[in-house]
Amino acid sequence: MILAAKFLDVSSVTSHTTHLLIMFYIIGLGLADEKDITVRGLEAVKGSTRVYLEAYTSILMVQKERLVRELAMGLQTRVSLSWQAKEAFYEKPLILADRDMVETQSDEILHRADEVDVALLVVGDPFGATTHTDILLRARALHIPTRVIHNASIMNAVGAAGLQLYQFGQTVSLVFFTETWKPDSFYDRIKENADLGLHTLVLLDIKVKEISDENLARGRKIYEPPRYMSIPLAVNQLLEIESIRKAGILDSDNTLAVALSRVGGGEDQRIVAGTLANLANHPEESFGEPLHSLIIVGKRLHHLEVEYAEDFAIDRERWRMVASKVYGCALD
Amino acid sequence: MILAAKFLDVSSVTSHTTHLLIMFYIIGLGLADEKDITVRGLEAVKGSTRVYLEAYTSILMVQKERLVRELAMGLQTRVSLSWQAKEAFYEKPLILADRDMVETQSDEILHRADEVDVALLVVGDPFGATTHTDILLRARALHIPTRVIHNASIMNAVGAAGLQLYQFGQTVSLVFFTETWKPDSFYDRIKENADLGLHTLVLLDIKVKEISDENLARGRKIYEPPRYMSIPLAVNQLLEIESIRKAGILDSDNTLAVALSRVGGGEDQRIVAGTLANLANHPEESFGEPLHSLIIVGKRLHHLEVEYAEDFAIDRERWRMVASKVYGCALD
Questions:
Q1: Does B150 sit within 8 Å of A157, measured CB to CB?
Q2: Inter-chain CB proximity B150 and A265 less than 8 Å
Q3: What does the pLDDT look like over A170-179, one tens digit per residue?
Q4: B155-325 and B2-151 share a CATH fold
Q5: Ordered alpha helix ranges (H), chain B
Q6: Complex ipTM, two decimals?
């Protein structure tokens, strides 16, 4: 009996996928563009009656006219066209849903998902955001069967820098500071990792759906363009907190770090390595397009990690020197 | 000029991919079956002159006759058929390469990779194993352009248990103990994570290419079937070391853990949650097919994590009781 089941199981892999169960799918899109969806994910999209695309930025929500007007505006254009590229590629109309909608109107997304297949497409892997566990919990409460289709996310693609994944401690987020608000709990987390010699992945902030003071005062719901934290700004914020907390874990000249952008293996992937000072003084453009992430290198650093990441170094000499003298790596 | 470049860049996404540069690709296959490859990965496979499939187990290397003879043997059959399924699906003959070959004969794999596209397919994400950074370094030394196509790996798909990825510390591996060899450095790593309240992902051992004492004595190079560590065995090994080291981080009745198997969102995915005692006493079969992983739950546990994972609990009452009384989670 078990044998028969196994044969069925195996043969079903080669034949066309037919499933009788109606599903709510959350499908990871990976990190670069619409071709990073998996074949299984693409099949689920094509079989779904409604397909939602979770938009990172409110800019995806603008009307067609504005899209055309903004054709010359760099990133926004890119993101918008990329949405149209996705729609064409997936051969499905996509319903854009911003993070707010996924959070607050999950019942609308789940509407009739027990009668027809519904898919929610998200950047990276579905379990990268708590929002997605929330909507899965809601589906469960409504007795709607769910299926998650995994993909790469920054949590594992960060390996592209050559630093080994098992040498990473907890991941932290860094938000935009204002004059009066400089949340610094990330510093304790980096210190905990650093004390153990572990690397820290730092995810940099995005600001979307901001309304300027002027528009707010006039009651106009006009959103500012999205803002993405740059690597030099991130490094300066880290050093600002170090100068206040003074635990000695982040040093301009003696702490190594690696900046990552668009880690999808594509042509626009950028990986840049150096001391914190190297990164802070490097031109913003050279770090590539957002989103950006930053790795603070821990002291358990292995010489093979140094050699692999050396290829991305702004200043190879300095990279090797600090790895050897400060981190104690035995290099050739 | 920048604008023109952006337009080109964007339009290339929608048109058919044509690249002039010859490449060595390492392509992640994700976690479940051949349909977890990305569309970009599938294109690269179809465009490559030689395609290697890194085999987890030596059993993939056996001759066709033996494959047929072993058709009735469960997992081996499954793995073998799965290899054939891949070959049919990718429309390419696959050259099987075991981990040893990728490590020691990388130049053979890279042969003429500066003249024709060559692809190496690996389970999960390419940066899951140091072997793959080694072969990328070797390609770099030979001036062969490389491209990594990412995919899901256990390092991010572990989120399927409902425990948040940013609450994980460093990942550890657990090897099969023998009478005389019980390496326990994993214990220090789990303790470091536990002291910070973080979860630990424990990857369980696989034994391949083992030769029995009898065959070794007779000089016969006959490999034993691969062995995969089961969840009950893993838990017993953990508790054995706790009983020696006595740091009080692992307790049968008061430490929560989650077992994962085939986390690809597929029909054979299994997630089982409970105390260490719950897991140790649960029938081996109920944990599903190998490979297995285990999460040791840390004390920073959030009540939403408890509620999500509760659905996988062997004993819901006990799961909630320990989460509330021992971990201090405020539950409804």
A1: yes
A2: yes
A3: 999 999 999 9
A4: no
A5: 2-14, 39-47, 64-69, 75-90, 99-104, 106-109, 130-141, 154-157, 185-195, 213-217, 231-245, 276-280, 303-310, 316-325
A6: 0.85
